[in-house]
Amino acid sequence: MVSVGVLALQGDFLEHIQLLNSIPGVGSFAVKFKNDLDKLDALIIPGGESTTIGRLLTIKGLDVGIREFVNSGRPVMGVCAGAILLAKNVVDRFVGETGQFTLRLMNIKVLRNAFGREKDSFESEVFVDILGNMKAVFIRGPAIVEAWGDAKIIGFIDHPLGRFGAVAIERNLIAVAFHPELTGDIRLYKYLISEARR
After folding, report:
1. Number of domains in the chain
2. What residues make up the domain containing 51?
3. Residue 12's domain is classified under what CATH number?
4. Catalytic: 179?
5. Are the C-beta atoms of 179 and 12 separated by less than 8 Å?
6. Amino acid 118: pLDDT
């Protein structure tokens, strides 16, 4: 049994838990405290409000816990706001530099609100190198605009505003700009689980 935790401080963590529960051989857990990480093989940081989640991470000491989790070699997938929180560099399409807290774990630059505000949310198709075409839901979605060092952008979306990164990987980290939990496509989850089993 692979134990996958979903950070449950704010945002759409329940959808991830429900989807994980549909995968044979996987147990899912809501993560609210640092010691919740001890029993896990993998972690998902879900979508939500990245500044709010970031503040709660530091209040609860989960920022330290997640860094230790990553350093132990266990995989983490950040989805939408979670991708922002993994990034070393974050800017916003409308306000520029945000100065917001992030975990600074991935060598990626993320553009917040890359496609506009919430009213500009949309569904599209994303091509991911290791998985093929995926249906993707972007809700006030970010985009991965740069990767360096060991980080690599492996998924792209073609949008009227340009071609943007939608999935990036770096060692045991996965950043996803869209919401796989809303389409029922479990391929990214299976990739995370396969990384946990290595």
Report:
1. 1
2. 2-197
3. 3.40.50.880
4. yes
5. yes
6. 74
